[in-house]
Amino acid sequence: MSEKALLAGYKYLLTYQYSLVICDLTAEFCQTFLPGRELLRQRDQMTQVFDSEG
Fold it and tell me: Which of 14, 19, 24, 49 lies deepest, with the highest CB count within 10 Å?
């Protein structure tokens, strides 16, 4: 089995697919409910969590 096939196998896991949905919903939530400059730090922290995990 090639190395590419082993690395791509995690994409078929249900938990990985759920995490993508949660990431998308979090980004949408931040854009909708955390507008403006006063909440910029909180919004960045919430979205950067998913950037560092992937």
Answer: 19
19 Cβ partners below 8 Å, 6+ apart?
Answer: 50, 53
Q: What are 8-46's pLDDT values in tens digits?
A: 688 889 998 998 899 899 889 988 888 888 888 888 888
Concatenating the DSSP letter of every residue in 5-48 gives: HHHHGGGG-HHHHHHHHHHHHHHHHHHHHS-SSTTHHHHHHHHH
In 3D space, the residue among 6, 47, 42, 7 whose CA is nearest the CA of residue 27 turns out to be 47
Q: How many domains does the chain have?
A: 1
Range of the domain at 27: 3-53
Question: pTM of the prediction?
Answer: 0.65
